[in-house]
Amino acid sequence: MTNIAVILAGGIGSRVGGSTPKQLLPLADGRSILEHAIDAFEQASCIDEIAVVMHPEWMDEAKALVERNSWEKVTTIIPGGNERWESSWHAILAYMDRSEALNLWLHDAARPFVSQRILSDIAKALEEHEAVTVAVPVTDTLYKVQREEVQGIKEAIVSAVPERAAYMRAQTPQAFRFELVSGAYMKALAEDGIIATDDVGIVRKYEPRHPVFIVEGDEQNRKITYREDL
User: Taking the model in full, what pTM does it have?
Assistant: First the structure.
């Protein structure tokens, strides 16, 4: 089984601000968020190939990064889509013609600190499961809210306080047998409408007979969303 890591770097990171996509912004050591994310998979013995999905306007910058770092596992750079799911779909399309058995790992470039322990645990889980995700326990109290508008002002009120033990916070990578994730996406596209914030959501909705196994993540595998996260 060939393990292919797809680094999803197709967004522009508008919440960080500025004209440069956040995945190309430097961290404290001067290397970009994207470089750190790719490094993690380059170093992982369980990963055979790496693909980078990049915003179409920043493809040249991605190619320059690959050349500068001399990564051996990066085999392709794929233009991303307008939404996250489109970038995943573009990656799936890129591997449709491969004949060997594949596992596709989909990882947010904005999570540059994924550990080798997490990657190893996913690889082990994939030996028995067709779909594997990463999550951490919820530690804060959760509110279910009811949103309404009063005299032109949008307000939210607490409608319930769910039991937090029943919830976990999603992380990436999310890894799947290629046939499973590609089939789920094709069903979703056939229904002419994808509403999901991650790939597990699409697999759960369109291939519900296939359970998604959870590997415990860690807080270091955080997502860089705002400028202060840098």
Answer: 0.91
